[in-house]
Amino acid sequence: MNIIIVSRKHGQTKTFASWFPFLIFSFCVAMFSGAGYLGYQWGESSDNTVFDLDSADAWSRHLSEQQAELGNIRNFTEEQLQALTVRVGELQARLTRLDAMGERLVSVANLGDGEFDFSVPPALGGPGAENLDEANYLPPDFLSVLDDLSARIEDREQQLSVLESFLGDRKVLMDTFIAGRPIKRGWMSSRYGYRTDPFNGKRAWHDGVDFAGRDGSDIIAVAAGVVTFAGKKSGYGTMIDINHGNGYTTRYAHAKELVVKVGDVIKKGQTVALMGSTGRSTGPHVHFEVMNANKRQDPAMFINRAALNN
User: Fold this and answer.
1) I need a surface site. Which of 79, 134, 243, 287 has the fewest CB within 10 A?
2) What is the mean pLDDT of residues 72-101?
């Protein structure tokens, strides 16, 4: 079989043998087969490691390492949050103590109502955020802020402790300051110094002052202190001695009944006994003495002076 091709330009013809198309087909098959073989060999060659098993294992290990690192970061973040929560709780507790201490100091110092109100937040103010240069503004380091706040709170606690100690000492001084009369109601029936003895009519020394009143009425402490004697003593009848510190002691004698005992801590103005006429007495009254370093003092100096308030 022959193939005849007619040329339009010259009207010539060319004849090809029947085996020529088979030759062309065989050549194409060979080309595609060779290209496929070369592609297979390239994919299997040792120089190409993109999709081999070792690459897959490397990618898997790298992914596992990233997941482990992410887990560590998550754990670290949770620990930091827990530490931050604990620190905030500590600061809140310390602020609560400061508020309680402040309220106590306000009470001790007798400050005016509303001058220091620890039940409400402090009044604050200042320019708004729109006045800030946002380009130069950096958010604060929260841990540094908390550390600074903690240091300021500690400093404030020390200051308040010193102030409380000062006010406490001042209050103790006020409470132990001897001033006033040892009775709530009654009148002075005998003064300190020489007088006519009510039993023999002779001139005699009187170590205290007497306050007469109704039988069974209250006898009160003129200052805070500790009871050092409570019982009967010759001439004084039933009596009490109260030590006020700084060498001062007061005595309350001729009582009908005692309402405190040795060792009791007494507040200023507290009832310590009931008025009576025990011992060397002509009627219901209290014999009141003031002693400093065991030496008698004129009680009038303490009865008539104003209470300590400065």
Assistant:
1) 134
2) 77
The amino acid present at 287, given as its one-letter code, is H
Task: Summarize pLDDT for 27-41 with one digit per residue, the tens.
Answer: 555 565 555 555 555
Q: pTM of the full predicted structure?
A: 0.51
Average pLDDT in the chain: 76
- In which residue ranges of the chain is CATH 2.70.70.10 found? 187-303
Q: Which CATH class is domain 187-303?
A: mainly beta
Average confidence (pLDDT) over 110-119? 59
The pLDDT assigned to 16 comes to 47
